[in-house]
């Protein structure tokens, strides 16, 4: 292997968990001396046009033959089987979460994506999954042999413990993630609409341009529930602002319907935040039970009950905060993640 050509579609700077994972791999490899480079692919994935597929084919086929192709699943999962078969023997597929499991898809679109990703994965020499849950899905539903899958969980950086809100101030709830259907923010707002008599504020940090209709519907829902002065849609923010939001939070909330891993959960753990999350996808396993109160995804009543319990019980918040802070010591670091992925790529010999 001469180098890792890391093929990633779209804008690598976008504030999503998947792109953050990809950025950190490239940054860690640069520090480790691992020969690698970013191969930019068109931004239309997972619904590329014929022109974008042709451009992708040209970009990938122009790579030196002794390079290993690490291809982000946002692109690889949408490759027609003919393209995937033509790259057999050279590809390591990185799967954050299967494309067909994204919320908000029509049944026909979901089925088409699942079938295409299943076919493409047959031709990958190795597969990187970002959680044990995703690995199990790939084995059971996508028929990927277990021996070809390596789990490389996202790393997390050490961070100072959150100080929370001042005494007597509203409790600060924090949610982080793009405003897309899968994140379940409509369920969270519905749950909070029944808790207007409690003293809380919610900040949702996440890009609003990935699913504009969802973002607009969420803003309308907040206004309709009379929560405009209590729920702040902060949009995408820089790292300094994000760190300040974590530091000032009292409770981290993740209402996602499905997560391939849930990087924001480990970021909350790293700051010693008590967590309320769903059991959607890998989220049930990412946060320890002692640190996180967990409810079924899509269940506004269960989420409301969890919120009520944690808002009213400072002692439970403190116990879960201590458990989160303790658990942070055992979280993987990004150097560990980058090493696992690089070693997997090194075992693929074009």
In short:
This protein is of the alpha/beta class. It folds into two domains: about 170 residues, 3-Layer(aba) Sandwich (Rossmann fold); about 160 residues, Rossmann fold.
What does this structure look like?
There is one protein chain. The relative contact order is 0.14. The protein is built from 14 helices and twelve strands. A six-stranded parallel β-sheet has the order 2-1-3-4-5-6, sandwiched between helices. The chain has a six-stranded parallel β-sheet with strand order 9-8-7-10-11-12, sandwiched between helices. The longest helix is centred in the first third of the chain and has 16 residues, at 17-32. The protein is of the alpha/beta class and 350 residues long. The protein has helices spanning 17-32, 50-61, 73-76, 81-86, 107-121, 132-141, 185-192, 212-224, 239-247, 263-270, 283-286, 300-312, 314-327, 334-346, and strands spanning 4-9, 36-41, 68-72, 91-95, 126-129, 149-151, 171-176, 200-205, 231-235, 251-254, 275-278, 292-295. Helices cover 41% and strands 17% of the residues. It has two domains: 4-155 and 332-346, Glycogen Phosphorylase B (Rossmann fold); 171-330, Rossmann fold (3-Layer(aba) Sandwich), CATH 3.40.50.2000.
